[in-house]
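Dear colleagues,

I hope this message finds you well. In preparation for our joint manuscript, I am sending the DUF4834 family protein (Mucilaginibacter agri) sequence together with its predicted structure, so that both groups work from identical material. I would be grateful if you could confirm receipt.
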Amino acid sequence: MLLIRFLIISICIMYILRSLVRFLLPALFQGMVNKAQQQQSAQQRQYRQQQRPAGSIKIDHIPPAQKGAIPDSEGEFVDYEEVK
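The corresponding structure tokens are as follows:
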């Protein structure tokens, strides 16, 4: 008798949990999707605000002038033939 009672209660609990999961998980996932869409739209708005007008140039880094650099006219060039 105890086994039958346990099985009936277990089946009822599993049925209730299955019903809850069927209704709660889609709502949870929809909330996550909505949040991701809001973050993406906020990033797009921020990107649009940061855009510069056409023709403007922004230089982030100017390398320092190199002293003692070897010019392209100097150096060694070796002629070669392709051997087949």
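For the figure legend, we might mention the following. Residues 2-50 form the longest helix (49 residues). The radius of gyration is 35 Å.

With kind regards,
E.M.
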